[in-house]
Fold this protein.
Amino acid sequence: MRYLLSGNEAIARGAYEAGVKVCSAYPGTPSTEIFEELPKYKDALYCEWAPNEKVATEFAYGAAIAGVRSMTAMKHVGLNVAADPMFTASYNGVLGGFVIVTSDDPSMHSSQNEQDNRQYAKFAKIALIEPSDSQECKDFMRDAFEISERFDMPVLFRSTTRISHSKSLVEFGERTEIPPKPYEKNVFKNDCAPGFAYKKRAKVEKMLTELEEYGCTSRLNKVEYGDGEVGVITCSIAYQYAKEVFPEGTSFLKLGLTNPLPMKLIKEFASKVKKLYVVEELEGFMEQQIKAAGIDCVGKELVSNMYELNPQRLRQMIYGIEPEVKELPVKAVSRPPTLCPGCPHRGFYYAIAKHKDVIVTGDIGCYTLGDNPPLSAVHTCICMGAGFSAGAGMARAFEETGNPKKFFGVVGDSTFFHSGMTGAVEIIYNKANMIPVVMDNHITGMTGHQDNPGSGFTLQGDVANAVKIEDVLSAFGYKKILIVDPWDLKATDDAINEAIASDVPAAIISRRPCLMIKRMKHETGLCRVDPDKCIGCRMCLKVGCPAISIIDGKSVIDPTQCKGCTICAQVCPKGAISREEV
Amino acid sequence: MKKSVILVGVGGQGAILTAKILVNGLISKGYDVKMSEVHGMSQRGGSVSTQVHFGDKIYAPVIGKGGADILVAFEKMEAVRYADFLKPDGIAVINDFAMPSSTTSAGLCEYPEGCVEAMQAAFKCHVLDAADIALSLGNARCMNVVLFGAMTAVLGMDDIDWESVIRETVPAKSVELNLRAYRAGRDAVS
């Protein structure tokens, strides 16, 4: 029996079959579903959402030190947060196998940059494994744990959006229970003090040399010889595209273990073909090393290092064949993602955008969508936590140059626990001219509604003591913590004014649960427009709600979308919109 | 043999369930299948696409421009947006249904006129008002299965028992409604 699995589901299945025991992660597209899948196997393993990727990585690595197989997973930029423990785990090594899954996002479908995390494996001097479909996602997991234990290092397991979110058929295996390895105190191994690190530095090189040798015969690296004319070295999803684009007779060296590169195997393959291509998505990670080894090949001269590949793009790059398409005289206009109808973020953004004299610095989450028109409330978005700290730096710069401005830093509840808390300390301790705002919708929204330390539930479905954001802010020293319901525009505006006028450190919590949280009962209703009262002034369009449109000069609310939040009713100058209970 | 279907629409319209029914039917016949979905940010009312590829052996889970045999558009402007994914001799199944985008609602631009007509001039098209058909069946939410029914009429995989695939794929309480939606969609284009 074969099952149709996404790469993420297959990674979870593979870790389960490989006997993983402890798993910790922070959600991030396109990696999230790996951990959403794990509770299925909770009788055999422990899994959790951690407050951020660094905590998750340290937690999972701790379990590996203790002697069991462990895994963490994150999106590509999550590894920036988790890089610190990864680099040292490379020196200290493991007892139980330790796998770090990174899901990269070529073309930036849901991300702020296009970093190629394969570079991290080389940088941190650890093994890198790259599956090319769901079956390999599952199968290679077992190899990943074995390599980690055999070569005493963490293994970076890299998928991409197209690997994680494509579905293909997978044959299952059985779980192997791995007994815990006996833990003994070993300070030299598990302490990175400089004297120990100095000695372990040489071990890292020795292990990489042995791993390269291993890679030359590993089943992860596969040779398919053709007629000897053209050869292609490739990995990950690019292998699937190359198989469609290059003609029959082409030889393939398909690499699944890509750091360290099996250079002996590559040289042998190169010697058996007349023309050699290296086909890889994003950076010329393999190509640069292959060229540095003195092997003649063609890669990034033809294949762009930007954006996702697909068979048509690759065909165009290699052979110059343009796709046959029909041009239409009509063009589609842009349809960007928007805040959902009834979204609690809308009210706060509408209210703050009216204050033209303040600057709002934003962060990563659903509330990033408040950057777009018509709300256009936010000036910046950088990374998790920067809504507070980068804004504080901007405020200081204006202050130091004699042009002070009031700042509002905006983060979500999950982002607050992820890396907003340290920024909240920075603001209060170093006296930034900023009001920190937590948009608390009780869930990690954009990634598909995962629990976080404020939500009161764990990944395995157990009840937990929710950490109260107001208690945290209060402990930091914020003396005025204004908690408002963003569905009430006047109360929200009053809170903004009160915070601005406050002579003690103030913070705002804009609090209402996301309507997509299934376990909660929501106070939804339905708003209707009285066409006799509507004058078609379009004020209600300025709240940016997808349920509202203008038909024949009058405002109309789509009853299938409306949730009855009444933000539109509160901005209507004619009182033409009213809410009905449903 | 290799065929590619691309399903496009607006986040939340149910394209993924439709693709799932399609894929389950194809697997039951022993085809190799790959499917690609969009998750994350674009789900929030943005433009979305799902691709399904099947045949004896499938490598790539995505195609590029000019690669699809069938385009199923859950919304008519989205048909235009993804029209260049369709092979010149490909077939489009179009829901004659418009959803304003945040940019048109905010008055930043106009929803384009003549989407369906432009598609009809360029491609072989089957156009139906799946929203209206779904409403007449008593539930606007089965619009996606109405479109699925229309697509199966075009797909030509008549050896697959789509009705039993629907029974096995959709939630038990909505089986009857979805079967009626499937039949109504098929009838609308045959």
Observations:
- The CA atoms of residues 89 and 108 of chain A lie 29 Å apart.
- Chain A has a mean pLDDT of 97.
